[in-house]
Design a protein that fits this description.
The chain has 225 residues and is α+β, with helices and mostly antiparallel strands. Helices cover 46% and strands 17% of the residues.
Length: 225
């Protein structure tokens, strides 16, 4: 009889612990989800249509870009709101819209910086934002330009953002440079250049870098995480 009572008691304790454990797991999971929702809300409350977002890419060419441009940022895109959800219009492979949170998580350590054109309340009207989206559609689905050529056949990240702003608002965010303006002395940079161009590096090719746009005095920083 005593053994039966002890068995029942043990089963009861195990059942309670199991129930309590599941409850705690669900609670912790709920807290985590609520925390993510709060963080997303804080971010989305600050950002606006047309903001420009920067990150350090984990791509194979990222380190070479950072060294050549003397900047930690190697990738960027334009933030758009569609149906109350935020996306980043970016030139990767291919040019496409990427959900904002997914875009942020893809970068190194989830770090990002959001910048905005000065006087945006007068420049980025609903009509202008719509024109930016419409003009940008011409690039959608195009391949990423690994050669950084100044044409519309293929396109890279900073080129996409620069051309959209220039075409629609007539604002040049950052000065156009040439490959010869970059620091090409590091071995990583030289190896990447040789991999892409062989011995015929187009030193006079026009280029706009994420670093040049990031440092533009036409932008103000909205959020950095």
């Amino acid at each position: 009889m005593k053994r039966i009572i002890l068995t029942i008691l043990a089963i009861g304790i195990l059942g309670f612990l199991g129930y309590w454990g599941i409850g705690m797991y669900l609670f912790a999971n709920g807290v985590k989800k609520d925390s993510l929702r709060i963080e997303n809300f804080k971010l989305e409350k600050k950002i606006q249509n047309g903001d420009i977002i920067f990150q350090t890419s984990k791509s194979s060419q990222s380190k070479a870009i950072q060294l050549a441009t003397n900047s930690k940022y190697s990738h960027m895109g334009i933030i758009y709101e569609n149906d109350e959800k935020y996306f980043v219009y970016e030139a990767i492979q291919p040019v496409k819209l990427t959900p904002l949170k997914k875009w942020i998580n893809r970068g190194e350590n989830g770090h990002y910086v959001v910048k905005r054109i000065k006087n945006s309340e007068n420049i980025l009207t609903d009509r202008i934002i719509n024109e930016m989206k419409v003009y940008g559609e011409k690039f959608k689905g195009k391949s990423y330009d690994i050669y950084f050529e100044w044409s519309d056949d293929k396109i890279y990240c900073s080129e996409l953002v620069w051309k959209i702003y220039k075409e629609v608002t007539d604002i040049e965010i950052g000065k156009l440079e040439h490959l010869s303006d970059f620091d090409l002395s590091h071995e990583i940079v030289q190896n990447k250049m040789k991999e892409r161009y062989g011995e015929n590096v187009p030193m006079n090719e026009k280029v706009i870098s994420p670093a040049e746009m990031f440092d533009s005095n036409k932008l103000i920083t909205i959020k950095e995480e």
